[in-house]
Amino acid sequence: MSEKILELKNISKSFSNLIANDGVDFDLKKGEVHALLGENGAGKTTLMNILYGIYKPDAGEIFLEGKKIDISSPRDAIENGIGMIQQHFSLVPSFSVVQNVALGLKELGIIPDLSKVRKRIVELSNRYKINVDPGAKIWQLSAGEQQRVEIIKLLYVKSKIMILDEPTAILTPQEAKGLFETIREMTANGASVIFISHKLKEVLEISDRVTVLRHGKVIGTVETKGSNENDLARMMVGRDVVLKIDKKPSHPSKPILKIENLHVIGDKGIEAVKGVSLEVKGGEILGIAGVEGNGQRELGEAIYGLRNYTGNIFINGSKVRSGDVLERIKNHVAYIPQDRKADALCGGLPVYKNLFIKAFSSPVFSFNPYLFYPEKLRKPAEKLVKEFSISTSSVDQEVKFLSGGNMQKVVLAREIESEPKLIIAVHPTRGLDVGAEEFVYNVLLAQKERGTAILLIAGDLYEIFNLSDRVGVLYEGQIIGYSEPDESHIEEIGLMMAGVKNEDKI
Amino acid sequence: MNDIVISTFAGAIRAGTPLLFATLGEILAERSGVLNLGLEGMMLMGAFTGFSISYITGNLWLAVLAAILVGGLMASLHAFMSITLRINQVVSGLALVFLGQGLSGFWGNAYVGMQANSFQNLKIPLLGDIPYIGPIVFNRDILVYIGYISVPVIWWFLYKTTAGMNLRAVGEAPDAADARGINVILTRYLYTIIGGFFSGLAGAYISLAYTPMWVQNMTAGRGWIAVALVIFAIWDPVIALIGAYAFGGISVLQFSFQILQVPIPVNIMNMFPYIFTVFVMLFASSNRIKKLFGAPSALGVPYSREEKT
User: Which of A108, B194, B264, B270 could form a disulfide with B162, with the two C-beta atoms 3.0–4.6 Å apart?
Assistant: First the structure.
């Protein structure tokens, strides 16, 4: 832990009206793991994309081993020994592992000798205990395996500086442990790692130092050893954070949602949900955990009628038809989709119209379904804006200009206002800051108190622990098992997320 | 009867050769992620340029070269519009078709009915004497032979060379290619223009070998057939060869049928290639089918480094 290998000085970058980085200073010492901590939208990824040559900074300088360097493309970064694993992997799905590692290597010549590349991959995977099949095609690999390919790519070109952007987001707890071991092995071999995250626990576990970003500015850099979760959270959010949510025991009533043997075809034409049966009672939250891409989205969309399926879905005892959203709305089903911009809001319409976009078919409201009087919507919209503390200049503001958190509040306000008996929430806090996250949690918990059945599909295990009464784990389109929503069961849940079956079921 | 068989198959190869060139070129362009629907326009301009240069100078190779360059020039216009300006690729491609039809019609008016130098058959020693195969395959003009050679060369290039690997990566996952230091913009320009070269050559074949004269609009929709063939071939040069000759076969079948007095009206048979094209396009326009059959994932999507979500 000695000299600085990398220094970023006074980096600024803005996108049209948004300042992503504002005079950021950052440095990295040789052989350390330096965590870059901040909420979603704090500017962590932007800063690292600048270092990797994907974005051009508006201002600022980069020094590598004391020398000022100019990075204007990823190629420059790679040549300077800087490698990055982005959140969306930079892999070619139809290529094999070997081809992906070989891609862009300078030593290839006109006709690449892939057997040589393969040999080095095997060497590296043995030395760092990274398990990959060099001949496999990327699309056949799980997200965790793809990440290992990305790590091999960095090791192959002997990157001195490795940037990992939210690497644990797609991993099971066990895989995350394996990743941390690999990171330690890499730093022991002289590499330096920048670890981007918004999760305090893992930052405390893996890093040597932490730099906290908030709204594009550096709040401070601290030694991990002398720090703790509360300090870091305060730096990250700017105020004290209540990390525990008040979850009351549930008093489940009769089943509201019942699914029998559900099969759903995904976008690629392959079956994404393979025979799911489950039941959610009124007044309980069933959490569905699992590594992303195991059928979560398709499950949520099928239940809400956005996707055709075979099998039976009963809402409140009556069977509903495949692919019929209107029937869901009439049966008081609320839906919080994973991509709110694409699936829940019309960005170009004002807040008040978005708030009542479903109201015309909902049994709760008595609007004239053929004629539209906007002035009649403004008043109730203003009331909702107040109730859900949506910060907008007026109800006439177009939704696309709101922040992610406020967009989600608009969705929540609309869905809750229709007095739901069932809420399907898919990744409801994705991309939100801690304040908005807390708000979403409390709204959902209040709904549970009211007796609503809630199906919560989420990637973040702590979100599931905070909210749900039972946890089911989705693996390759099937509910592989159930567990208790408690940290003490994290091992068991993690194993199920990786496909290891749990014998005792609820 | 033997003669009819030989002339049908030989005709299939001759009629298939311009389709083959255009299809191979478009495969390269689409593999890089650029959809160029302007084949018809580029072929027409290639046919016109080839014919007029041959007429004026009498030099066939100069004529072919000029046709190739004109095809590339038009493709570079498409590249500029769709890659740099990021205009919708379908719109820009259609613009090329109209441009080619308009320009060749305007300048070509003076050449209608003229005669110019054309490519003659060139029998390959030994191979040309094999019964059936010889007269069908090895007694053709030199451009047909270039067509034969292009297929394995392009196949080898796509699957065995570093440049081919980079090309496929750019069309499949441009952000991944970019993150590995491959110049996405340059790659797309390069292969779009090479695609144009092939289209120019395809056009030259029509006016300098297949029907050696100038007729307005003489490509007669072959550019569109080639667009469909690319999909039919699943972006693979070897299947493209089979498809191109098969389509060529369908279009010459009418002559053989007339000789054999098969009772199908000529007009119906003339429609076959186009009907087939419509079906391929219908089938292939579904995104799901495109994904299933391995279309380059980034086909038709402009790339910009800073505008990702």
Answer: A108
Residue B165 contacts A where some CB pair is shorter than 8 Å: yes
CB contact under 8 A, A90 and B175: yes
Amino acid type, A79: E
Cβ(B195)–Cβ(B36) below 8 Å? yes
What three-state secondary structure class fits A366?
coil
What b-and-e string marks burial along A158-189, b requiring 16 or more CB atoms within 10 Å of the CB? ebbbbbbbbbbbbbbbbbbebbbebbeebbee
Residue linked to tokens 């190739």: B68
Contacts of B180 in chain A (CB under 8 A): 74, 78, 90, 103-104
What whole-number distance in Å separates Cα of residue A379 and Cα of residue A395? Answer: 9
Instruction: Please report, in tens digits, the pLDDT of each residue of chain B (309 residues total).
Output: 688 888 899 999 999 999 999 999 999 999 999 999 999 999 999 999 999 999 999 999 999 999 999 999 999 999 999 999 999 999 999 999 999 999 999 999 999 988 888 999 988 898 888 888 888 899 899 999 999 999 999 999 999 999 999 999 999 999 999 988 899 999 999 999 999 999 999 999 999 999 999 999 999 999 999 999 998 888 999 999 999 999 999 888 878 888 888 888 878 888 888 888 888 777 766 666 666 666 788 888 888 876 543
Under 8 Å between Cβ of A170 and A291:
yes
Q: Is A478 helix (H, G, I), strand (E, B) or coil?
A: strand
Cβ–Cβ below 8 Å for B173 and A92 = yes
| A195 touches A32 (CB < 8 A) | no
Backbone φ and ψ of A400, nearest 5°: -65, -15
Nearest CA in chain B to A15: B306
B253: phi then psi, degrees, rounded to nearest 5: -55, -35
Q: Which domains does chain A have, with CATH numbers?
A: 4-237 (3.40.50.300), 253-332+419-506 (3.40.50.300), 333-417 (3.40.50.300)
Biggest CA-to-CA distance, chain B:
65
Collect all residues from A whose CB is shorter than 8 A from any CB in B: 52, 54-56, 73-75, 78-79, 84, 86, 88-95, 99-100, 102-104, 108-112, 267-269
Q: Does residue B238 contact residue B24 with C-beta atoms inside 8 Å?
A: no
Instruction: Give the pair of three-digit tokens for residue B215.
Output: 């007729």
Cβ-based burial of A2 (10 A; exposed 0-12, middle 13-18, buried ≥19): exposed
CA distance A49 to B227: 38
ipTM of the complex: 0.86
CATH architecture group of domain B2-119+147-292: Orthogonal Bundle (1.10)
Q: Is the Cβ pair B180, A55 closer than 8 Å?
A: no
Strands A67-69 and A82-85: unpaired
